[in-house]
Amino acid sequence: MLKCSHILCKVDNLRDCVAQLEQAGFSVQWGSDPARAHNALVWFEDGPFLEFFELPRGFRWLSYPFGWRFGASAGQRLRSWALAPAGWCDVALEPERYQPDDPLNLANVTQSLHQLALRGSRVIKGHRVAAHGEKVHYRFMTTRDAHLPFIVSHYHPLQRPEHVQHANGARAVSRVDFHLPAASHSQLQRLIPADRWINGQHSTRRYLSGVNLLGWQALPQASDFIQSLFNSSQEA
């Protein structure tokens, strides 16, 4: 049904974070014009990508009108992002299969959520203007269970570069350690029966403990913050 799309990391200062990522040997793509961007992406040729974003705490007040318009769970998710400390804060899921004729459609996902007795928010239309000037469209939604990941469509047009090379050797995300309460963990397994990246674990609270990168080697000049985010994996 669904698979891991990307992993979100909240940062205090996006420009500082991008500089640290590049110093640590990552190739980084700005989400939009670097002078105004609020997010930046680290891609791999296959599998989930990484999104680093900056969101002031004051945005928590926008969660109320956002929730009135799109549903309480959507407002709660915006509030959680605004109040999150620096570090990994969320996981996004996307449809398992790309539909080239209608990549933004989440109707099948909504239907599946109803069949699983899960309620979702209204589908939210989003877009951004990429750094090279192209308008990029996407849609997303949340589930009423705040512990579960949120759900996004595929980008239109697709944004994954054909070739990606990171100087630190990172080739792909191999595992995301995602902790959540037992009831939510059970629902997650029903949403991602064939996903090979998310390692769901029972916990009394929801949090991400780390992201394993295939082939990644910490460079000596990597900052403590960047090194704290990743574990190296030699898994095939």
Can you summarize this structure?
This protein is α/β, with parallel strands linked by helices and 236 residues long. It has one domain (2-171): 2,3-Dihydroxybiphenyl 1,2-Dioxygenase, domain 1 (Roll), CATH 3.10.180.10.
Furnish the topology, listing elements before pairings.
Elements: E1 2-10, H1 14-23, E2 29-30, E3 39-42, E4 49-53, H2 63-70, H3 72-83, E5 87-95, H4 107-115, E6 124-129, E7 135-141, E8 150-152, E9 172-180, H5 182-191, E10 198-202, E11 207-214, H6 224-229, E12 230-233
Parallel strand pairs: 1-4, 5-8, 9-10, 11-12
Antiparallel strand pairs: 1-5, 2-3, 3-4, 6-7, 7-8, 9-11
Helix pairs in contact: 2-3
Low-confidence stretches: none
> How many DSSP helices?
6
Tell me the series of helices and strands, N- to C-terminal.
Answer: EHEEEHHEHEEEEHEEHE
N- to C-terminal separation?
24 Å
**Global shape:** globular
Whole-number tally of structural domains: 1
Mean pLDDT: 95
Number of separate strands: 12
User: What class do helices, strands and sheet pairing give?
Assistant: alpha/beta
Q: Name the CATH superfamily classification.
A: 2,3-Dihydroxybiphenyl 1,2-Dioxygenase, domain 1
| Helical coverage, percent range | 10-25%
The value of Rg in angstroms is: 17 Å
What is the CATH topology assignment?
A: 2,3-Dihydroxybiphenyl 1,2-Dioxygenase, domain 1
Architecture per CATH nomenclature, i.e. the level-2 architecture: Roll
The amount of beta strand, in percent, is 25-35%
* Widest sheet, order of strands: 2-3-4-1-5-8-7-6
The CATH class, by name, is: Alpha Beta
